[in-house]
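Translate sequence into structure tokens.
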Amino acid sequence: MRAGFVMAALLASAAIIMPAAAQEARNLDQEQSDSRVFNGAYDGKPVLFELSVPSGESLRVDVISDGDFDPVLRIYNAETGDLIVENDDGGEGLNSRAIVSADEAMRLRIEVNAFSAEEAAEQVVEAVVGDEVVEPGDGGFVAPRSFDLKLTSLDYEAQSVREVGWNAEEKGQIFGGEEHLFTFTGEEGLLLEVAMVADTDIGNELDPYLALRDASGQTVAENDDGGTDLNALLRYVMTSDETYTIVATGLSDSVGGYSLRVGPRREPVVQAPLQVVGIDDTATGRVGAGYENGDLDPASILYELSDSALAAIRSDGSGGITVRMTKAVSDDPDFANGLDPYLELGFETPLGFAVVQTDDDGAGDLNAMIPVDLSVLAASAELLDALRIRVSGFGESAGEYVLTVSEGLDPVEAEYEDYVESSLVPGAAPAIAVSLDK
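Result follows.
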């Protein structure tokens, strides 16, 4: 092996252990700027700034690049050297953005580097002995790339722990990374529902995130997008009368205003895995992620036709029915229903549920519908008794539904292209074609 090659590899490794020397830090406390915008230039070395942040202030830091410069932002505690936050593309385009909130006075060190430089360093780290090492530069001139460092003071106020009860509503402002805490006195066996809804103001970037901790501090439930849009909806059946802590924050350090609401006092609804529905009958329920995944609601529920419905099909041989699954209308938009109904028709067998037909959006507006002719089963008591309707949420969506079974064959929505070809004809519906071995 050539000595020059070994030396190049050692130098490359050393470059990772000893990062490029940074420019001397500019003390922004000694500089005046009405707009709090400072110009910087990256010339191959990290650019450093230092400033003091008083107690109770929240500071948003934006690195706005000029041209194709892709900045990487890191903010440290200047006294301890601890990394507080880092960001690559949190601003517009390739720009970086981060927010720091100071519960007590502190001095910050802001570092602006180039994504391309860090990417090149990672490639060298991944190189192993035997690879040809190509250094990212020869130490020559690097054209400076200008950028603006914009500092924006936010109306930050450290939040104390707030106590809430049934039907409570609180408002707050997340500035990035901090947690807002609310205590709730539990009641064993009751259902606790908490909604965190982002304000609809223009520019609000908050993605609400909720967690629930028990008295020991252990997280017992959490939710990200259980409500509408990006809003959070947490549901939990309390296991004791202890004090629970509701934790409200922004996902991925997102920021913005929010409303936190606690639902009314009520008991959870226990749903049987197999239920009965008749002709011109209505059933309601709620599906979720499934008991097996720790959710309060089952992933699906099965329905069988009532004795009167089965008798009617057998007696007159007219088996045309339409099964509809509709998302229930929520009376409270903050506790909105995020369900995308999904219907399956099939048979209960010794090996489990055998699917014959499915539908997602056949009724329009995400609702599901299956028109089917069961007359072919009229002479087969065994198969007709084994017929099942299964309801669930498409794509793991969760929420409340309304299930109806009506007499006759209703046409599916003409625009529903994923439905079986025969059901695209108004008034037509597929028939279940089966044979029973004797």
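Note: The CA atoms of residues 330 and 336 lie 6 Å apart.
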